[in-house]
Write a structure and sequence with these properties.
heterodimer, A: seven-stranded mixed sheet, 7 strands, B: alpha+beta, four-stranded antiparallel sheet, globular
Chain lengths: 154, 428
């Protein structure tokens, strides 16, 4: 049943519904990546930043500057992707991560620009993301995020 | 998911294809040395990267890998006579040496220069670690001989087998870096298989069934870390190595031999799964060798006289529904290798990745595809040597290790992830 001839008889109906993916930039360097991503065409991806200086527990800020409730945004998502660069503190990670825990939403942590980072800077960011990421990726190139979202049908 | 054109790009490896060009950048395992056991032994058909070839070992012990078909009338040289430093076609007696050069045409006048004009395509064939390796790329770009540790340790410390896998190479390889399937598909075998059981790490694996995965780019490919809770607030890490395009090394367990795979395309719908077990600092025990020969661990039993698994798609992999129901196996199929292969082959010869629905636990697969696509494009458009050609990328090890909770595993385990001669693998 796994021959090339049999493969022609695979059911062609859609086998999934679109998933909502929320992408949050946790710091300045990742915000520029998220802004670039937001300029592309996605079917169910929403983009936010937590690098505005405002505490995230007061709300998530979208790229137009509007603030919305963290719990509401997380509840609407099937997956939350948190992006950070190896650098300073990312307090938003714990707030968003806790909300995802409460709402039982999957989280992926993504550290970009790792190739040029010091071990200490990388470790610092890692420690903050690790408790809140069910999957953690340390990527050298920023374009991994594009491929991740495409692969997840965002 | 992948777009159709990306899927085609990664799964097609014949001559002239971009992915085929990438595979032709490496030394690839072509045969086991046992397949050409003595001088002037029978030739062996070899199909690699959609090219039909014939391998032989001449009177002087030189290995040859040449176009399967005689340049005269297109007859297969598999029927040929391997004698007096060449392979002679059984039809009209044309004879070729290991470089593919025609050296005799018995029907032509003795002074004829016609043989000088006839040369079959040939590829180099070298022996390392009980394997005959070939390089199918441009001569001027031939890399140094392979340096994988399993192929460099003394013969008593290593053993490799191969098996036919009736699927495209990519879905087989992706199974090798998909660590999240282990607690499901293979859970029943961890404590029973002689090449796995008894390690302390197995306890962590079976106790903490929800590992967290971290994927980190390495110079040659990826480190894929699976993190579980260990004692005293520490983490138990299992770190798999993947090196472009298709090498994996599974994290070790206790003092067991270390194992892993290479997946090499035969054509676009079949591949060879090469499976090695080795130990960097000791000989394999008689028990380990016997277990490998019996098809335990990541190895298989064969249809006699072939490298096709005895459990295969024509007999539904000997699925045992009673064992599945009783929990003796998760899928009903016996053994790590065929548990994997049965499911990978069930996807069809080339899985349609436009229909898949990946989750975040598939990040390793997503990143591996990205690295492959990047490498293919860089090679095709700019001639950039792909990762994995550099022998430094081949001198790697997997590891299983206990680490504090605040450290990047690839940094904390840096020494454990490279080959250190005479140093045992870091293993729990």
């Amino acid at each position: 049943m796994s021959s090339a001839a049999e493969a022609r008889f695979r059911v062609q109906a859609a086998n999934s519904k679109p998933r909502a993916i929320t992408v949050v930039a946790l710091d300045g360097p990742s915000e520029s990546v998220v802004r670039r991503l937001a300029g592309a065409s996605w079917s169910r991806a929403a983009f936010f930043t937590a690098s505005t200086g405002k505490p995230v527990d007061r709300g998530l800020t979208d790229l137009a500057g509007r603030t919305t409730d963290v719990m509401t945004e997380v509840e609407a998502a099937d997956l939350v992707v948190m992006i950070a660069a190896p650098s300073g503190p990312v307090p938003g990670a714990s707030v968003i991560g806790q909300a995802c825990n409460v709402k039982r939403v999957m989280t992926t942590g993504l550290i970009i620009g790792a190739a040029s980072a010091s071990d200490e800077a990388l470790s610092n960011t890692l420690v903050q993301l690790r408790p809140w990421s069910q999957m953690l990726v340390i990527a050298h190139a920023d374009d991994y995020v594009d491929d991740l979202l495409t692969a997840l049908r965002a | 998911m992948l777009k159709k054109e990306q899927n085609d790009l990664l799964t097609q490896t014949g001559p002239g294809t971009p992915m085929g060009q990438l595979f032709r950048s490496y030394w690839l395992p072509a045969l086991l040395t046992e397949e050409l056991p003595e001088n002037d032994c029978p030739p062996v058909r070899v199909k690699l990267l959609s090219e039909r070839l014939i391998a032989f070992r001449d009177t002087g012990g030189r290995y040859g890998l040449i176009d399967e078909f005689c340049a005269h009338r297109g007859v297969s040289l598999w029927f040929g006579r391997n004698e007096e430093c060449g392979l002679r076609c059984a039809y009209h007696g044309w004879k070729y040496d290991v470089t593919g050069q025609c050296i005799d045409m018995p029907a032509e006048p003795e002074t004829s220069r016609f043989p000088d004009k006839i040369t079959l395509k040939s590829y180099p064939l070298i022996e390392r670690g009980g394997i005959l390796w070939t390089y199918m790329g441009p001569e001027e770009k031939q890399p140094p001989a392979p340096e994988w540790e399993f192929a460099r340790v003394p013969p008593p410390q290593t053993m490799t087998t191969k098996r036919l896998q009736e699927s495209n190479w990519l879905q087989a390889m992706e199974g090798g870096i998909d660590s999240s399937h282990v607690p499901f598909l293979h859970r029943s075998d961890l404590n029973t298989d002689p090449l796995f059981r008894g390690a302390k790490g197995n306890t962590y694996t079976l106790t903490d069934t929800r590992p967290v995965f971290e994927v980190v780019e390495s110079a040659g490919g990826l480190y894929i870390g699976a993190r579980r809770n260990a004692d005293d607030g520490n983490y138990y890490w299992r770190i798999t190595q993947w090196v472009v395009p298709s090498f994996t090394m599974i994290p070790p367990r206790g003092d067991h031999a270390v194992h892993g795979h290479l997946w090499i395309p035969i054509d676009d719908e079949n591949c060879w799964t090469w499976s090695y077990d080795y130990h960097p600092t000791r000989s394999l025990t008689g028990g380990e060798v016997a277990a490998i020969r019996a098809g335990k661990g990541i190895h298989v039993k064969y249809v006699p006289g072939t490298y096709r698994p005895f459990a295969n798609k024509d007999n539904d992999y000997l699925i045992d529904r009673a064992a599945q129901k009783a929990g003796r196996t998760f899928s009903g199929v016996e053994g790590f290798a065929m548990q994997d292969a049965s499911l990978q082959e069930s996807m069809g010869p080339i899985v349609d990745r436009t229909k898949e629905n990946l989750g975040s636990t598939d990040s390793g697969i997503i990143m591996a595809r990205q690295r492959l696509l990047r490498a293919v494009k860089a090679l095709a458009e700019h001639g950039v040597t792909p990762p994995g050609v550099d022998i430094a990328h081949q001198r790697v090890r997997s590891a299983s290790i206990i680490l504090p909770p605040d450290q990047p595993f690839n940094e904390a385990a840096r020494d454990a992830l490279i080959v250190r001669p005479s140093v045992a693998p870091v293993s729990v």
